# Entry
Amino acid sequence: MDKEYLAKQQVFISEFFKLRNKQQKLIEEIEKLKKKKKAVILVHNYQLPEIYKIADFIGDSLELSRAATKTKAKIIVFCGVDFMAESAKILNPDKIVLLPVLEAKCPMAGQVKIEELKELQKKHPEAATVCYINTSAETKAISDICCTSANVIEVVNSLPNKKIIFVPDKNLAKYVSRYTNKEIISWPGFCYVHHQFLAQKVREAKNAFPKAEVLAHPECPSEVLDLADYVCSTSQMLKRAKESKAKEFIILTEMGMLERLKMEIPDKKFYTPQAKICIQQKKNRLESVYNSLLFEKYKIAVPEVVRIKAKRALDKMLQVSYAR
Ligand code: 13P
Ligand code: SF4
# Structure
């Protein structure tokens, strides 16, 4: 083996251990701060594995909303994106809710234009408005009920209205329309991560791994969902992969979910035909969580008039709340 190669390898190994020691130190400091400040850290499934290590709870949007209603902590640090932290604040006005990185914003949540939605509601006064949890507090405030990928079918079918305005994800709207007799008026929004999945790539993956079960997130386009064995939220993927007799799975959602699956079910295999990453979900790092706890930033604030109305939509969802 040549000397230059060995020298490079030594540098790499020493850098690796430096980084690991730094991460370990940060994890210990975060744990101390968490205790001192009576804080809880809620973590979405798409977060980096290093963030899993400081989590009090890891889950999908529905589970995290439920966890936010149950915690007795004074501070909630939300490792996810803006609408998740905002939902926690809507449900917990007396707690401090922190988002470690302000730029961790879900682009789809910003796709609803309030004035345009009000116009649509005026045009269809008989329709109920269902908003995906991936929306702003303002959108939730003018919606009848909220939903997540885990309960969208139950939520839509729980309503007496025959017409539903559904915001903002057109793929999720198309998915739910398969399971209801109601007329769905869909907003033209989408998630830039899931919208990129291609049916052809899924077919190729199925040919390569014919025994694999296909689990897809309902934010994927409908021609992709047609190829799936199960369409489900991120945490429902975990449940299904644990319970299934299958040993291999093709996973159609953001890459971070594969980390959670591999961590929890190390004896099964998980593949993805396209490695898609949500840049916004990946902005949270151990350093930012540490600073967030230390300086209590960035505090989520929702004007009280908006919060009260938005809470109604979230509460209604939590009452329906049959997790699929
Ligand atoms: P889940 O609620 O299924 O975790 O989905 C959240 C999300 O942002 C999907 O892109
Ligand atoms: Fe938003 Fe899509 Fe990222 Fe989920 S994966 S947080 S929907 S951009």
Summary: Residues 81, 106-108, 134, 191-193, 254, 278, 280-281 surround iron/sulfur cluster (ligand 2) (CB under 6 Å). The chain has 14 helices and twelve strands. The mean pLDDT is 96.
